[in-house]
Amino acid sequence: MSRYASILITGASGEIGHGLIDRLSGGPRPIITLDLNPLASEVAKKVRKEFVGSILDTQMLERINAEYEVDEVYHLAALLSTRSEFSPALAHKVNVEGTLNLLEFAQREGESHGRPVTFFYPSSIAAYGFPTLREKTEAGRVKEDEHLQPTTMYGANKLYCEHLGRYYGRHYKQLATDKLGKIDFRCIRFSGLISALTVPSGGTSDYAPEMIHAAAKGEPYSCFVRPDARIPFMAMPDAVEAVLKLMHAPREKLSRVVYNIGAFAPTAEEVERVVREAFPNAAVSTKVDGKRQSIIDSWPGDVNDGAAVRDWGHAPRYDFAAAFRDYLIPTIRKRYA
Ligand code: SER
């Protein structure tokens, strides 16, 4: 067994994984990763050991358990919301059974090395659900415990896994006398995330990042939601910073298991406007996909993140203007130059 307390990141080759590995590499804890796809070579260089495989492969998880002492888990692997609507049963398998496997893994790790395992779980604004656009508009900035009637398989999976994490963290085997919960479960409900370095796949908030990246590449883009569609978004560096802040906050400061975090909440039209200002030749049109539009209409227009601000100092660096001016546009320009 490795003598070092390690970090395990699942779904490491995805968007959040890239940013997290960048920030955590060079720190005191070696990183091990698990993803279906091999890591890009510049990312692979930053990790101690890369496992290529599925979170549904319990034998692989047992191997990692036998070989490494893991103190922190970032469980990022999931099928995103649009993709999950095409294969709901598969989404349930990956998103729910996969998360259960990781929680069991973390519990066994804690039992074997005797320390609590801090477990980060990325939930989503998809956990919320509004039956009508009018109710969404009237609700304004939603609090964590309101409007939790998801309309997607992905949202239902996320909401249930929040509960699973709370169970493993606070009530594990409560009727058994010989078992103590070993997991310190912490969760953020992310809004749509926009990275200058990677493009998401299979999400419903993808229209914003896709529009920006297409404009930077000089490619036409057909936006799949109406111009007035509004959900919260956040620049990827702020999302990664929030994860690290929450993971390193003293446990006694945390009044909740699940936190909203906000930054800015533009309409698709407002995103298009700043994209056109930066790339005057951008060819953006709109062709509404009714199903994806209805998912966006069911998600909140913005979130109340007062608890995250109070408990662990959530403070995004980038508002809407700064996200584009100082992060997205310059970094994307360089990327496609
Ligand atoms: N951004 C994700 C998606 O669109 C939601 O968490 O699926």
From TrEMBL:
InterPro entries: Epimerase_deHydtase, NAD(P)-bd_dom_sf, NAD(P)_epim/dehydratase
UniProt-recorded Gene Ontology molecular function terms: L-threonine 3-dehydrogenase activity
Limits of the NAD-dependent epimerase/dehydratase domain: 7-262
Superkingdom of this protein's organism: Bacteria
Gene Ontology terms describing biological process: L-threonine catabolic process
Protein family according to the UniProt entry: Belongs to the NAD(P)-dependent epimerase/dehydratase family.
Name this protein carries in UniProt: Epimerase
Species name: Limnoglobus roseus
